[in-house]
# Entry
Amino acid sequence: MEKWEMYMEIQQLLKQGFSKTKIAEKLDISLTTVYRRLKKTPSEMSDWIDSLETRKKLLDPHKELILSWLRQHPDMSAAQVLDWLQEKYDDFEIGESTVRTYVKGLREEYEIDKVTLPRSYEAIPDPSMGEQLQVDFGHTKQNTIDNKEVKLSFIAFVLSHCRYKYTEWLDRPFTTQDVIKAHENAFNWFGGMTNEFVYDQDSLMVISENGGDLILTKEFQYYRESRGINLRVCRKADPESKSRIENVVGFVKKNFAKHRVFHYIDSWNEQNWQWLTRTGNCKIHNTTKKRPVEVFLLEKQHLKPVSHEINISNNHDTSISRHVHKDNTIRYQSNRYSLPLGTFNKRKKVCVKETEDKQLIVYIPETGEIIAKHSIPDGKGLLIKDRKHSRNRNKGVDSFIETVALKFKDKELAYQYINKVREKYSRYIKDILQIILRDTKETSSGLLSKALEECVKRKLYSATDFSDIVAYLKRQRPLHETSEDKEIKPVNHSGIRNRSI
# Structure
């Protein structure tokens, strides 16, 4: 209700005999507001309303800047506006509620609507201090200074009790080795580690749940044993068990990364850590109603110390997990690479490693066995195929040729003839062999030999020519003669159909 309209309503209800308490209840306002309004005469009320419209607000000096942000990014939250102002001005000390009210007023005045998609989770009690750390990954697409788009990846850690966070970014996909290094950096950030680690079912760490008996990647299994990590993997479609890290991933995307321009990865990580110190770990948490940094000072005392250093390097220090597709290929940096036939039937995932000399090595994560090597090209959308990974189509043809040749007395001459046919009609060689094999089953060996010799002599290298010669010889042979006794007369080739298979 507008201020002037409320003032007139209070005056009308008072004249009708309503008490001040009843007026407050009827208009759903406080009793104090009723008393304040009644102290003013109509002229004083009018002057006061006019002064509100002309009175300067604390954020007016930043009005055009905030408006430009809201117009460019209509879905921008007031909390992100506050963070950007704090980032831009070191001495900025205006409270969040003031910023929220000011942003709301600008949206109403300039009709800049905001659309939100809330996501709800079932409430789960907080673990005790030092008990649990949740880990997950996120991805964003950012605009660069030259108006291009780059895909960034980040890993996020959060202490489940105090909600204290750590994040780390890369401008390429994470490898298992990157994940391990990020864990070590997180331990340095927190000053220790928790009793339990909660992960999503990410292929960089977990190959299979195996009914609770987890099968981890070779690298992460070694790291887990070396560091003494007690881990738990969330079930699929179970957001409640990892709701804290899900919220952190969303918070990082919406408050830090959204609308931010990417320059290069080092400066991006520096901005990220400054944001964690300024906002990510200092902003009052909506659920706990406390600042994570303040509760962290207590929880830090309950973390297990991480003192000894471990060797986190291995032979596959740049390995990345990849799905095997039905056509026995994997995808890497917008290209497809072939794998040996049958790989898809044996396993669903493999690991790849890019070497310094631009070679892609594909290996089995459990054993380290190398199953393919490819050179990495410069282009995109290419199929890089090793000939060894193709089906040997000639193997079946060679066996078929041998079967047909054995039907003739002169096997060497049969091989020569069939190979000539193969050179001329390589695409149809199987069909040709079927036709010749059919004739061998219906013709005596002596007549077959004479037909073969006639075809070679007259250079008739096709299945239909061979069949016509066989048919011609059968017609020329008297019934009481055997094929061995009959002498072949010269064939009038002009009378034979000259067609090819």
User: Anything to note?
Assistant: The two ends are 91 Å apart (CA to CA). The first helix runs from residue 3 to 15. Confidence is low (pLDDT under 50) at residues 209-215, 479-501. The longest strand covers residues 132-143.
